[in-house]
């Protein structure tokens, strides 16, 4: 296994014709490559504009007894690639839809790819590559070490239930929305995942599956033979099919 970088992905995977975009990331950065300028917030990296909006939202929430903390912000292509390959190689647990462990050896390559995609993004397609998206929890009611990022924690009786109710009512006032909602997105519901619409909407418009294909063809990606022929469909389902920005579509009932 290749460890500690050395695969030369930092900006070197895309041809020179792919240049600047209208958003604060250049094209390689849209796929998690390169080194975007990030602001650190509680140990996570966010684009500066996103960090400012988050701080304003967290301050307002704190006044109402909700302590919003960030479990995960920016994540690089290299990091997502390591997660993907570890799952493909059985070095990291692989879970089915119900969270039960699956033996990767019992699956053919196509089934293995689909099983990984249930819970992990294909490298290059994670919204965490953009610096606009973050996973949040209520650090006054659960520690980061105990947090599992499962939907039950965000239901009304869970430690992050009050946080989730507050976000459904107020996140849109600060530009944030929940892109992953049941029935409204290709990715399963993630009531902890927020996205900053003023930047992530134009970034999604810049996302190009042909450029992603160029990146993946050159990356040391497991299951490449399964991924590349289906890339357009995977991008449609997991990248473009998201819940719309604005107030939450499904207020807690
Ligand atoms: Zn997330």
Automatic annotation (TrEMBL):
Molecular function GO labels: peptidase activity
Pfam families (UniProt xref): VanY
Residues of the D-alanyl-D-alanine carboxypeptidase-like core domain: 48-198
Gene Ontology biological process terms from the UniProt entry: proteolysis
InterPro entries linked: DD-CPase-like (IPR052179), VanY-like_core_dom (IPR003709), Zn_M74/Hedgehog-like (IPR009045)
Domain of life: Bacteria
Name of the protein in question: M15 family metallopeptidase
């Amino acid at each position: 296994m290749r460890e500690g970088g050395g695969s030369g992905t930092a900006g070197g995977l895309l041809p020179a014709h792919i240049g600047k975009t209208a958003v604060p990331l250049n094209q390689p950065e849209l796929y998690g490559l390169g080194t975007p300028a990030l602001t650190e917030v509680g140990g996570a990296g966010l684009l500066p504009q996103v960090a400012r909006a988050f701080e304003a939202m967290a301050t307002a929430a704190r006044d109402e007894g909700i302590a919003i903390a960030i479990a995960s912000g920016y994540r690089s292509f290299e990091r997502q690639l390591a997660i993907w390959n570890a799952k493909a190689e059985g070095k990291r647990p692989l879970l089915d839809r119900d969270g039960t462990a699956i033996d990767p050896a019992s699956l053919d390559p196509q089934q293995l790819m689909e099983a990984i995609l249930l819970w992990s993004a294909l490298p290059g397609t994670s919204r965490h590559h953009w610096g606009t998206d973050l996973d949040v929890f209520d650090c006054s009611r659960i520690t980061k070490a105990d947090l599992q990022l499962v939907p039950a924690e965000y239901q009304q009786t869970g430690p992050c239930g009050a946080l989730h109710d507050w976000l459904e009512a107020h996140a849109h006032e600060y530009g944030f929305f929940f892109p992953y909602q049941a029935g409204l997105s290709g990715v399963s519901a993630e009531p902890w995942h927020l996205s900053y619409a003023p930047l992530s909407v134009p970034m999604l418009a810049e996302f190009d599956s042909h450029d992603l294909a160029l990146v993946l063809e050159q990356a040391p990606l497991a299951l490449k033979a399964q991924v590349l022929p289906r890339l357009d469909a995977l991008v449609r389902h997991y990248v473009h099919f998201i819940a719309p920005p604005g107030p939450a579509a499904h207020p807690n009932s």
